[in-house]
């Protein structure tokens, strides 16, 4: 079985020198043999960290690591012109396969004002289009936020705003991307699919209250679904409450397979093929860890 974790923050595993290697080895043993490491860091200046990790991991008992780079909406107020230049520089590396995670987040009181988030989101979609890279979209509404955050963001709907900006800045480029940690409803899913996106399901799919998410998981076409951890966050049942890690994507995959009435091996094969269709350079390479280019 070959599973792909389409979204993990690997830079968090650094409590001791060997910790990341231990996490990656457990991933490989669990059948999670490809990981997309998300390059946002804790601020825009750290977007290179995921690519650094991807280029440092090359062992027969470790997953293949690919990377993204982007500015998270929570950091939109810290975005600089030089960050865009850095994104373009990183994108020249063949292991940098996507721009993200980017998008809108109306959940935390401390998040930047909506116009700032939207401006930085749109700018990064424009950059991704110029680079020919798919995007990884983060979208979180204020529906379950604190009263203070709801007051700050008002009636604004992050899903509606995200899809409107995607239609304006992205859909016509036909480059596609991933709606990371998908948490919208069936209508949101339909519009995202129409815009060319894949829907990626994380550990919160397994949570008892995720009824709407499970409806989407059944509704989504087989050729447009992915699985992820968003590690070290959102550990799935039966690991909920623990620190998440890529190996645990197997639990999410098993839950998704059960919802869709297919075997886990079939679900793994389908989601792996979907990921490789979106990112063709991640198909098995002829010479070990090195991506050959002509």
What's the topology here?
Layout: E1 3-8, H1 19-29, E2 32-37, H2 49-56, E3 64-69, H3 81-90, E4 96-105, H4 114-131, E5 135-140, H5 147-153, H6 158-169, E6 177-179, H7 186-194, E7 197-201, H8 211-219, E8 225-227, H9 249-260, H10 264-278
Parallel strand pairs: 1-2, 2-3, 3-4, 4-5, 5-6, 6-7, 7-8
Please provide a written account of the structure.
The chain has helices spanning 19-29, 49-56, 81-90, 114-131, 147-153, 158-169, 186-194, 211-219, 249-260, 264-278; strands at 3-8, 32-37, 64-69, 96-105, 135-140, 177-179, 197-201, 225-227. It is α/β, with parallel strands linked by helices. The protein has a single domain, classed as Metal-dependent hydrolases (TIM Barrel). It has an 8-stranded parallel β-sheet with strand order 1-2-3-4-5-6-7-8. Strand 4 (96-105), helix 4 and strand 5 (135-140) form a beta-alpha-beta unit.
In the CATH hierarchy, the third-tier topology is known as TIM Barrel
Please give the alpha-carbon distance between the first and last residues.
30 Å
Write down the domain tally. 1
Structural class designation: alpha/beta
State Rg.
18 Å
- The spatial strand order of the largest sheet comes to 1-2-3-4-5-6-7-8
Main sheet: strands, sense, barrel: 8 strands, parallel
């Amino acid at each position: 079985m070959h599973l792909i974790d389409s979204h993990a923050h690997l830079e968090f595993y650094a409590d001791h020198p060997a910790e990341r290697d231990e996490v990656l080895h457990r991933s490989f043993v669990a059948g999670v043999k490809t990981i997309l490491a998300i390059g946002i860091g804790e601020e825009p200046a750290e977007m290179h960290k995921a690519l650094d990790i991807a280029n440092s991991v090359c062992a027969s008992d470790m997953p293949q690591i690919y990377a993204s780079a982007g500015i998270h909406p929570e950091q939109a107020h810290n975005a600089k012109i030089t960050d865009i230049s850095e994104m373009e520089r990183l994108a020249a590396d063949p292991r940098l396969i996507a721009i993200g995670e980017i998008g809108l987040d109306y959940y935390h009181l401390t998040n930047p004002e909506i116009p700032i988030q939207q401006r930085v989101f749109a700018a990064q979609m424009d950059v991704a289009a110029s680079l020919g890279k798919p995007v990884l979209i983060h979208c979180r509404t204020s529906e379950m936020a604190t009263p203070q955050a709801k007051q700050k963001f008002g009636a604004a709907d992050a899903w509606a705003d995200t899809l409107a900006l995607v239609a304006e800045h992205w859909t016509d480029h036909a480059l596609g991307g991933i709606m990371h940690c998908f948490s919208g409803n069936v209508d949101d899913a339909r519009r995202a699919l129409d815009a060319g996106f894949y829907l990626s399901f994380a550990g919160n799919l397994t949570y008892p209250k995720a009824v709407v998410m499970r409806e989407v998981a059944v509704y989504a076409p087989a050729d447009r679904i992915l699985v992820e951890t968003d590690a070290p966050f959102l550990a799935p049942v039966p690991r909920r409450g623990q620190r998440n890690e890529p190996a645990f994507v197997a639990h999410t995959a098993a839950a998704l397979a059960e919802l869709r009435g297919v075997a886990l091996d079939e679900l793994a094969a389908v989601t792996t093929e979907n990921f490789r269709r979106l990112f063709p350079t991640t198909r098995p390479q002829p010479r070990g860890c090195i991506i050959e280019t002509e």
